[in-house]
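Below is the data:
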Amino acid sequence: MDIKLFIFIIFKNFSGKEGNRMKKKTLTIAFLTLISISFLHVKANAADISVGATTWYSWWDMDNENSSSDPDIDPAFLYGPALSVKFNNDFNLSFVFLYGKFDLQEEEGKEEVTRMDSDLAINYRLNSYLKLFLGGKYMSYTQDNGFKHAGLGPGAGISAVIPVGLNFFLLGNASALYLWGEENQTDESDNDVTAKYNEYGLNTSLSLAYYIAPASTTLSIGGRYQYFKTEYEDDNLGDMKHKFYGITAAATYSFSI
Protein backbone atom coordinates (compact mmCIF):
# COMPACT_ATOMS: atom_id res chain seq x y z
CA MET A 1 0.00 0.00 0.00
CA ASP A 2 1.26 3.47 -0.85
CA ILE A 3 2.18 5.25 2.40
CA LYS A 4 0.56 8.56 1.34
CA LEU A 5 -2.73 6.75 0.68
CA PHE A 6 -2.48 4.98 4.05
CA ILE A 7 -1.97 8.29 5.92
CA PHE A 8 -4.94 9.82 4.05
CA ILE A 9 -7.18 6.91 5.10
CA ILE A 10 -6.16 7.38 8.74
CA PHE A 11 -7.03 11.07 8.76
CA LYS A 12 -10.29 10.44 6.90
CA ASN A 13 -11.30 7.98 9.62
CA PHE A 14 -10.37 10.43 12.34
CA SER A 15 -12.41 13.26 10.82
CA GLY A 16 -15.54 11.17 10.27
CA LYS A 17 -18.73 11.03 12.35
CA GLU A 18 -18.07 7.78 14.21
CA GLY A 19 -18.19 7.72 17.99
CA ASN A 20 -15.14 8.57 20.06
CA ARG A 21 -14.59 4.94 21.01
CA MET A 22 -14.46 3.86 17.36
CA LYS A 23 -12.09 6.74 16.51
CA LYS A 24 -9.72 5.76 19.30
CA LYS A 25 -9.75 2.10 18.26
CA THR A 26 -9.25 2.98 14.59
CA LEU A 27 -6.32 5.30 15.32
CA THR A 28 -4.63 2.77 17.60
CA ILE A 29 -4.94 -0.05 15.05
CA ALA A 30 -3.83 2.26 12.23
CA PHE A 31 -0.69 3.35 14.04
CA LEU A 32 0.29 -0.20 15.00
CA THR A 33 -0.35 -1.32 11.41
CA LEU A 34 1.80 1.51 10.09
CA ILE A 35 4.68 0.45 12.35
CA SER A 36 4.30 -3.15 11.16
CA ILE A 37 4.31 -2.05 7.51
CA SER A 38 7.50 -0.07 8.00
CA PHE A 39 9.28 -3.00 9.68
CA LEU A 40 8.20 -5.48 7.02
CA HIS A 41 9.17 -3.07 4.28
CA VAL A 42 12.74 -2.69 5.52
CA LYS A 43 13.45 -5.95 7.34
CA ALA A 44 16.28 -6.90 4.97
CA ASN A 45 18.12 -3.58 5.34
CA ALA A 46 20.66 -2.41 7.92
CA ALA A 47 19.54 0.27 10.35
CA ASP A 48 21.11 3.61 11.22
CA ILE A 49 20.59 4.43 14.89
CA SER A 50 20.88 7.72 16.76
CA VAL A 51 20.84 7.81 20.55
CA GLY A 52 21.24 10.77 22.81
CA ALA A 53 19.86 13.12 25.40
CA THR A 54 17.62 16.15 25.13
CA THR A 55 16.60 18.91 27.52
CA TRP A 56 14.06 21.72 27.57
CA TYR A 57 14.20 24.66 29.98
CA SER A 58 10.50 25.46 30.04
CA TRP A 59 8.10 28.07 31.34
CA TRP A 60 4.54 26.90 32.08
CA ASP A 61 1.51 29.21 31.92
CA MET A 62 -1.76 27.73 33.20
CA ASP A 63 -5.18 29.34 32.67
CA ASN A 64 -8.35 28.00 34.35
CA GLU A 65 -11.50 29.71 33.10
CA ASN A 66 -13.26 29.00 36.42
CA SER A 67 -10.53 30.61 38.52
CA SER A 68 -10.00 34.32 39.15
CA SER A 69 -6.28 33.76 39.81
CA ASP A 70 -3.97 31.28 38.11
CA PRO A 71 -1.08 29.58 39.91
CA ASP A 72 2.48 30.84 39.61
CA ILE A 73 4.80 28.16 38.25
CA ASP A 74 8.58 28.45 38.32
CA PRO A 75 10.41 27.47 35.10
CA ALA A 76 12.18 24.11 35.22
CA PHE A 77 14.27 21.68 33.19
CA LEU A 78 12.68 18.75 31.39
CA TYR A 79 15.17 16.13 30.25
CA GLY A 80 15.35 12.61 28.93
CA PRO A 81 16.51 10.20 26.21
CA ALA A 82 16.02 10.44 22.45
CA LEU A 83 16.20 7.53 20.01
CA SER A 84 15.85 7.32 16.23
CA VAL A 85 16.09 4.22 14.03
CA LYS A 86 16.47 4.82 10.29
CA PHE A 87 15.70 1.73 8.23
CA ASN A 88 16.06 3.23 4.76
CA ASN A 89 15.81 6.59 2.99
CA ASP A 90 12.03 6.71 3.45
CA PHE A 91 11.24 5.49 6.96
CA ASN A 92 12.51 6.02 10.44
CA LEU A 93 11.09 5.44 13.91
CA SER A 94 11.68 8.05 16.63
CA PHE A 95 11.12 8.16 20.38
CA VAL A 96 11.56 11.04 22.83
CA PHE A 97 10.81 11.06 26.56
CA LEU A 98 10.95 14.16 28.77
CA TYR A 99 10.66 14.33 32.56
CA GLY A 100 10.86 17.23 34.97
CA LYS A 101 9.55 18.80 38.19
CA PHE A 102 7.96 22.24 38.51
CA ASP A 103 7.26 24.27 41.67
CA LEU A 104 3.64 25.47 41.64
CA GLN A 105 2.59 28.24 44.04
CA GLU A 106 -1.07 28.25 45.13
CA GLU A 107 -2.99 29.89 47.96
CA GLU A 108 -2.56 26.75 50.07
CA GLY A 109 1.20 26.80 49.59
CA LYS A 110 3.82 25.40 47.22
CA GLU A 111 3.31 22.08 45.45
CA GLU A 112 5.80 20.07 43.40
CA VAL A 113 4.41 19.03 40.02
CA THR A 114 6.02 16.17 38.08
CA ARG A 115 5.52 16.33 34.33
CA MET A 116 6.08 13.65 31.67
CA ASP A 117 5.93 14.14 27.91
CA SER A 118 6.56 11.20 25.57
CA ASP A 119 6.35 10.78 21.78
CA LEU A 120 6.65 7.71 19.53
CA ALA A 121 6.37 8.32 15.79
CA ILE A 122 6.87 6.86 12.34
CA ASN A 123 8.49 9.36 9.98
CA TYR A 124 8.11 9.27 6.19
CA ARG A 125 10.44 11.26 3.92
CA LEU A 126 8.68 13.41 1.33
CA ASN A 127 11.88 14.80 -0.20
CA SER A 128 15.40 15.82 0.81
CA TYR A 129 14.11 18.42 3.27
CA LEU A 130 10.64 17.42 4.51
CA LYS A 131 9.12 14.53 6.45
CA LEU A 132 5.62 13.64 7.57
CA PHE A 133 5.20 11.89 10.90
CA LEU A 134 2.38 10.08 12.64
CA GLY A 135 2.49 8.67 16.14
CA GLY A 136 1.26 8.42 19.67
CA LYS A 137 1.73 10.79 22.59
CA TYR A 138 1.53 10.33 26.36
CA MET A 139 1.42 13.45 28.52
CA SER A 140 0.84 13.75 32.27
CA TYR A 141 1.43 15.83 35.35
CA THR A 142 1.06 14.82 38.99
CA GLN A 143 1.26 16.57 42.36
CA ASP A 144 2.49 15.43 45.76
CA ASN A 145 -1.07 15.61 47.13
CA GLY A 146 -2.15 12.70 44.91
CA PHE A 147 -3.59 14.69 42.01
CA LYS A 148 -2.87 13.09 38.61
CA HIS A 149 -3.70 14.28 35.10
CA ALA A 150 -2.75 11.78 32.37
CA GLY A 151 -3.74 11.46 28.71
CA LEU A 152 -2.86 9.41 25.64
CA GLY A 153 -3.65 9.88 21.96
CA PRO A 154 -2.45 10.48 18.39
CA GLY A 155 -0.27 13.21 17.00
CA ALA A 156 0.78 14.11 13.47
CA GLY A 157 2.82 16.77 11.74
CA ILE A 158 5.64 17.78 9.44
CA SER A 159 9.36 18.28 10.05
CA ALA A 160 12.14 19.90 8.05
CA VAL A 161 15.93 19.61 7.86
CA ILE A 162 17.57 22.47 5.93
CA PRO A 163 21.36 22.55 5.40
CA VAL A 164 22.90 26.01 5.83
CA GLY A 165 26.54 25.08 5.16
CA LEU A 166 29.66 24.07 7.12
CA ASN A 167 27.85 21.10 8.71
CA PHE A 168 25.15 23.37 10.17
CA PHE A 169 21.45 22.56 9.76
CA LEU A 170 18.15 24.15 10.64
CA LEU A 171 15.72 21.68 12.22
CA GLY A 172 12.04 22.51 12.53
CA ASN A 173 8.73 20.77 13.13
CA ALA A 174 5.06 21.54 13.66
CA SER A 175 2.48 19.05 14.87
CA ALA A 176 -1.03 18.69 16.25
CA LEU A 177 -2.22 16.38 19.02
CA TYR A 178 -5.48 14.98 20.33
CA LEU A 179 -5.54 13.17 23.68
CA TRP A 180 -8.12 11.63 25.97
CA GLY A 181 -7.55 10.92 29.62
CA GLU A 182 -8.53 11.18 33.26
CA GLU A 183 -7.84 13.34 36.27
CA ASN A 184 -7.76 11.64 39.66
CA GLN A 185 -7.68 13.32 43.06
CA THR A 186 -9.01 13.04 46.62
CA ASP A 187 -11.59 15.53 47.88
CA GLU A 188 -11.88 17.02 51.37
CA SER A 189 -13.80 13.92 52.56
CA ASP A 190 -11.05 11.57 51.29
CA ASN A 191 -13.26 10.35 48.44
CA ASP A 192 -11.64 9.50 45.11
CA VAL A 193 -12.82 11.86 42.38
CA THR A 194 -12.30 11.15 38.67
CA ALA A 195 -12.86 13.56 35.78
CA LYS A 196 -12.59 12.51 32.13
CA TYR A 197 -11.37 14.94 29.50
CA ASN A 198 -10.36 15.46 25.88
CA GLU A 199 -7.27 17.47 25.07
CA TYR A 200 -6.02 19.03 21.85
CA GLY A 201 -3.19 21.32 20.95
CA LEU A 202 -0.09 22.01 18.92
CA ASN A 203 3.67 21.81 19.21
CA THR A 204 6.36 23.70 17.28
CA SER A 205 10.14 23.82 17.53
CA LEU A 206 13.07 25.35 15.68
CA SER A 207 16.75 24.68 16.35
CA LEU A 208 20.21 25.03 14.87
CA ALA A 209 22.24 21.82 14.70
CA TYR A 210 25.91 21.13 14.06
CA TYR A 211 27.16 17.74 12.90
CA ILE A 212 30.64 16.74 14.16
CA ALA A 213 31.64 14.26 11.47
CA PRO A 214 34.70 12.64 13.15
CA ALA A 215 32.61 11.90 16.25
CA SER A 216 29.37 11.03 14.41
CA THR A 217 27.64 13.40 16.85
CA THR A 218 25.03 16.11 16.36
CA LEU A 219 24.63 19.04 18.76
CA SER A 220 21.62 21.35 18.63
CA ILE A 221 20.13 24.34 20.43
CA GLY A 222 16.86 26.12 19.81
CA GLY A 223 13.38 26.80 21.12
CA ARG A 224 10.07 24.98 21.56
CA TYR A 225 6.46 26.09 22.07
CA GLN A 226 3.62 23.78 23.11
CA TYR A 227 -0.04 24.64 23.65
CA PHE A 228 -2.89 22.40 24.70
CA LYS A 229 -6.45 22.89 25.91
CA THR A 230 -8.23 20.53 28.30
CA GLU A 231 -11.99 20.16 27.84
CA TYR A 232 -13.70 18.21 30.62
CA GLU A 233 -16.79 16.08 30.08
CA ASP A 234 -18.20 17.80 33.17
CA ASP A 235 -18.93 21.36 32.01
CA ASN A 236 -18.90 22.60 35.61
CA LEU A 237 -15.15 22.06 35.83
CA GLY A 238 -14.32 24.65 33.16
CA ASP A 239 -11.67 24.39 30.46
CA MET A 240 -7.93 24.60 31.12
CA LYS A 241 -5.33 26.14 28.82
CA HIS A 242 -1.62 25.35 29.09
CA LYS A 243 1.37 26.98 27.39
CA PHE A 244 4.91 25.64 27.57
CA TYR A 245 7.79 27.54 25.96
CA GLY A 246 11.53 27.70 26.37
CA ILE A 247 15.02 26.77 25.26
CA THR A 248 15.98 23.31 24.00
CA ALA A 249 19.31 21.53 23.63
CA ALA A 250 20.26 18.03 22.50
CA ALA A 251 23.22 15.80 21.71
CA THR A 252 22.95 12.56 19.69
CA TYR A 253 25.43 9.93 18.55
CA SER A 254 24.83 7.99 15.32
CA PHE A 255 25.98 4.52 14.26
CA SER A 256 24.93 1.64 11.99
CA ILE A 257 24.12 -1.99 12.69
Observations:
- Residues 1-19 have pLDDT under 50 and may be disordered.
- The chain has one domain: 46-256.
- Residues 46-256 form a domain with the Lipocalin fold (CATH 2.40.128.100).
- The two ends are 27 Å apart (CA to CA).
